[in-house]
Specification:
The N and C termini lie far apart (94 Å). The chain has one helix at 6-68. By secondary structure, the chain is mainly α. It has one domain (1-67). The longest helix is centred in the middle third of the chain and has 63 residues, at 6-68.
Length: 76
């Protein structure tokens, strides 16, 4: 079995540190992408909410028009 020396251990630890630094960089990139996706999804959620509000207002207006034209019985 090969002799394990401090120099050998040092070289292995140095290569591990380089790899860990790369992994840290990749994780930071993934975190940034996730944050961007969260912001995008929040924007989409707001857009959908706005669309629901618009449809609700149009439905209320249509109901009033139908009532005024006598197509529906007035609500009591």
């Amino acid at each position: 079995m090969a002799d394990v020396t401090n120099d050998l251990i040092y070289e292995v630890l140095k290569s591990m540190q380089t790899r860990l630094d790369r992994i840290d960089g990749n994780v930071a990139g993934v975190r940034g992408e996730l944050q961007a996706m969260r912001l995008h999804l929040n924007g989409l959620n707001q857009d959908v909410s706005n669309l629901y509000q618009i449809v609700d207002r149009q439905d209320a207006r249509l109901g009033r028009i139908e009532t005024r034209l006598g197509l529906l019985e007035p609500a009591h």
